[in-house]
Amino acid sequence: MATFLYKLGRLAFRRRHFVALIWVALLTLAGVGAASAPAAGNTSFSIPGTEAQKAFDLLEQRFPGMSADGATARVVFKAPKGEKMTDAVNKATVEKTVKELRSGSEVASVADPYTGHAVSGNGTIAYASVKYEVSGMELEDSSKDALKHAAQDARDAGLTVEIGGDALSAAPETGSSEIIGIAVAAVVLVITFGSLLAAGFPLLTAIIGVGIGVSAITALASALDLGSTTSTLASMIGLAVGIDYALFIVSRYRAELAEGREREDAAGRAVGTAGSAVVFAGLTVVIALVGLSVVNIPMLTKMGVAAAGTVAVAVLIALTMIPALLGYAGRRIRPAGQKSRLLGGGRTPKKPGRPNMGTRWASFVVRRPVTVLLLGVLGLGAAAIPAASLELGLPDDGSQPVSTTQRRAYDLLSEGFGPGFNGPLMIVVDAKDSAHPKAVFSEVGHEIKGLKDVVTVTPATPNKAGDTATITVVPDSKPSSTTTEDLVHAIRDKGADIARETDSKVLVTGSTAMNIDVSQKLNDALLPYLALVVGLAFLLLIVVFRSVLVPLKAALGFLLSVMAALGAVVAVFQWGWLSGLMNVEETGPVMSMMPIFMVGVVFGLAMDYEVFLVTRMREAYVHGEKPSQAVVTGFRHGARVVTAAAVIMIAVFSGFIGSSESMVKMIGFGLAIAVFFDAFLVRMAIVPAVLALLGKRAWWLPKWLDRALPNVDVEGEGLRAHADPEEEKELVRA
After folding, report:
1. What is the CATH number of the domain that holds 84?
2. How many whole angstroms from its chain centre is CA 43?
3. 441 Cβ partners below 8 Å, 6+ apart?
4. How far is Cα 639 from Cα 606, in angstroms, rounded to an integer?
5. Which residues pair with 75 in a beta bridge?
6. Number of compact structural domains in the chain
7. What sign does the CA torsion over 6, 12, 13, 14 have?
8. Of 628, 629, 646, 630, nearest in space to 684 by CA
9. What is the pTM of this model?
10. Which of these three, 140, 165, 190, is where a domain ends?
């Protein structure tokens, strides 16, 4: 591995014009594809294998006109104080608004509140349901403007009017904080390298890599049904790892220059050593992201595969374009310890013999490993405590900020029709094999009326064939409550009994039932996913480190950091701690896919720092140093760069906390805090403490396994064959 990458680095350094041309051509091709591709619609959300999805599929077959693809809007009206919606003036205003809503070119239907029994019991609140022919993301701006204009006309007439539903949905915006994250990364790179030019290379290559990845996703979005969140995730992870991977190779290049190597040879050795770590670190991230497919949720699978593709591009760019750029820079990139003239530095390196911060910290940990280990574990354990109160759910209009019209419409509907009205359950009765379908429909409705927490059960609405019917059930509790979840299970249990007696099928669907099924599916998949991802990465790390205990320690450390990160997410987004600082306007259940998503992404990123830091220790140990000294050596060479990489990744992820999309905001915060815990508490404190306690046992590997494993030579031992004889003697003496 190291020898191949060494040759690749030297080739890219020499053929820099050709390498740069290839990447520019790929970026241009991806950009043209994105610009010419049809606009992507709102991604379909399907959960194969769940009862809610089976009911949805059955509706598509038996009720062809009942398409769930179209956007919906609920225009909610509230009468002024002391008046009712049935008053003549208010009724005329609503009827005028309904007529105005029907005039839209993309409107499929509008339900009048007075003919559709959509007026509250006290007469103060009513709503009109609008159905569109296209999805919310495909809806023309003119249709959205017409919807808003109709609502404003009713407001001008004296009514309170709010709009719920997905008709006003828009692509998430990350805000200016994403740019601030990149700016912080630039400052950290300048401080790390002491050179504007060297700092610019990781940023440039990361932006090119993300540009290629996101453009490719945009180009394929319509064909592959990719949502807007897919490209946001890809850019988030691709930008963070792209900067980090390039940072490690540029840092190693400067270290090789400081040892007196020629620039082409230094570029080759940087790619051969640090590049090997980049390859395996990238592989762990790819494994974790692609592994999300085992959950069998198409949207999650697409997000993971798209982000994994962007990570693969980041690895390839770091291995080829970075050495090419180093060739262009020439002597303007100075050896480690020398600052650029652009920053006012001279050519004199730092005084020899003065230990850096990484050396001093590692020496402290090696002297007091038990104390550091206990403090690190207890600190992470304390942060993980809120995770015991984790509540899962999927966002709806009730989780929107109170400043939005969707949330105000949600609250008005709850006020007028009860909290369960915002999450009605749809019962689908398939009586095709029954001798008396109408009797089955009636029995199902009667049985459901007798259950607890049921407010309304509508009469069955059969299809044209008369063999399938839908029944709408309005619970007494809000959609995200455990009481509503219990009702869903009770209806399904009752439906199973009826099905056995009448040769029919009773299925529960709707957004509330779908959310419950998603949460259950994700919970069931978490342990198999952990076993798959951690198991594959464990085997990969055994090959990299040629040790059993080091990969085991890495996996256990990851579990600590991810549990602590989940605890922090619960504290902020569920409990409301520091919610004002994070601009979280509405607390509530944590997004259902957050735990499994964090497990996948954080594991991949955690292994990045494990590989980068511990390979330096392994390299020192292989070259003859004692275990404790190898820990200090690894920190002397790697701590500054790993710290910079972690700060950069935290800054990039934190930039997404400013997103208007609650899902993106939560992911950005969760990944940022997870990187903080993993980099600074696990990898910088617990890892050296454990290695110091284990000593030589840390690098133990059974002889039979040692013979069976391939030698990937991450430490670059094979590169000695490429050293000049005189240089080799000098290195041995050193």
Report:
1. 3.30.70.1430
2. 16
3. 429, 431, 460, 462, 469, 471
4. 15
5. 128, 163
6. 3
7. positive
8. 646
9. 0.77
10. 165
